[in-house]
User: Fold this.
Amino acid sequence: MLRTLCYLLLLAVVFLTACNKDQQKSAAVLEAEAYLERQGYTPISMVEEDSLFFTKQDLTDPAYAPIWQVQPFDSTQYIDKELASVELIVQNHPLELLYNSKQTRTIVYLHQNKVIGGWSFPVSSSEALVGNVYSLDGKTVEEVEQEELSPN
Assistant:
């Protein structure tokens, strides 16, 4: 009887901890997850939440240029502003078909808890970022540039 009671108590603690999980997430994480779900992706896990202060030098830094080139926004409008960065692993992303992978890593950028852009890359066994950087929805720099040139 005591063993059963302890087991039930343990189950209740695990259940309450799982239910409380969303309450511990920041507003930026919740918004990033909701945005990705609206795009048809399934968030699997959060990797990291961070903030970055975007400077003019970031635009000219060759290490970051590919990231800024796939953004759907004019990067200069966020110079000297703090952005939130939420890194999530998702499923059902277009890169999974392209790379025959089961998951995609996304980095969502938010300003004042509103999604403004981000980027993505396929999850590989090495977990290293090698090759192209893609927009949040899996487009190349060329595809993003072509969309900008196309009339709406």
Observations:
- The first strand starts at residue 42 and ends at 54.
- The longest helix spans residues 2-19.
